[in-house]
Write a structure and sequence with these properties.
With 269 residues, this protein is mainly alpha-helical. It is 72% helix and 3% strand. The chain has a two-stranded antiparallel sheet with strand order 1-2. It is globular and about 70 Å long.
Length: 269
């Protein structure tokens, strides 16, 4: 049962973080979404074996974590959940690409560089996406998606799916509590009871969804999710987007990590 409670807490944590009042939270959601899109697009544009040029891009998520007062550990846990998938995507590269290249003064297999590049790109992209939700919230993110003319049905599906995950976990938590009261001292659900347990949870979820839809219809729901007033884009929002886009473009054109290394070591003078 503690796992269910932790899951419920973890899902709600991002919404709780999105309610903070910091400079990053006050940036218009469309601007934050566009900045994230530019960030991911620039990351994806690098060559598949590029590594050192990707390092300056860690500055953006570090900046968001610092100025939005977001705790590092919960974000890191969510990124770690995705890491096995990222490793699975790139782990075959060292096996099929044994061409030796020089990484500084070290000879390494190009396959390992490709794997490391994929790992850094995907990890940074996932981190920034999680930070976007943690500093914006799903409701305001839906506003930004609608301003980008994303079809209404897709945005509505995204929001309702996000909301129904809560409800499904809450229903599972109630049923686990009831099951524990009827079977004290037992850990988890018996395999013989698992079928009826999941079936009951599905029926309760359908019933809950029907009651929610009826309640929404009584309140005038016509298919358009009302996420509140749409804030206006301010001048400082444009400055935020322009400054970060300029940084991303400069970091794409120049290898800042190599330039800084040359500055401190004197190489290249």
């Amino acid at each position: 049962m503690s796992n269910i409670i932790n899951s419920l807490y973890n899902i709600r944590l991002l919404d709780d973080l999105a309610r903070k009042k910091t400079f990053i939270h006050s940036v218009h959601p469309l601007i934050k979404l566009l900045t994230t899109i530019v960030y991911v697009a620039v990351l994806a544009s690098f060559e598949r074996h590029e590594v050192s040029a990707l390092l300056p891009f860690a500055f953006y998520p570090v900046f968001i974590l610092s100025f939005a007062e977001i705790p590092v550990v919960p974000i890191l846990k969510r990124v770690l959940l995705v890491e096995p998938l990222i490793i699975g995507i790139g782990i075959l590269n060292p096996l099929f690409d044994n061409y030796i290249v020089m990484f500084g003064d070290i000879a390494v297999s190009r396959g390992w560089l490709t794997f490391l590049s994929i790992f850094i790109k995907c990890s940074l992209a996932v981190t920034v996406s999680i930070l976007l939700v943690a500093t914006t919230g799903m409701d305001r993110l839906a506003i930004a998606l609608r301003m980008l003319k994303i079809p209404r049905i897709l945005v509505l599906q995204l929001l309702l799916t996000y909301r129904y995950i809560w409800l499904l976990i809450e229903e599972a938590l109630r049923m686990m509590q009831a099951y524990s009261l009827r079977a004290p001292g037992r850990k988890g659900v018996k395999i013989n009871d698992l079928g009826s347990f999941l079936g009951q949870m599905l029926l309760r979820a359908f019933d809950r969804a029907q009651r929610i839809y009826q309640a929404m219809s009584l309140r005038g729901f016509t298919g358009e999710y009302n996420a509140g007033d749409v804030p206006k884009i301010k001048f400082r929002d444009f400055v935020y987007f322009a400054a970060w886009s300029l940084f991303f473009i400069i970091a794409r054109i120049y290898n800042i990590a190599v330039l800084i290394g040359a500055l401190f070591t004197g190489v290249g003078r």
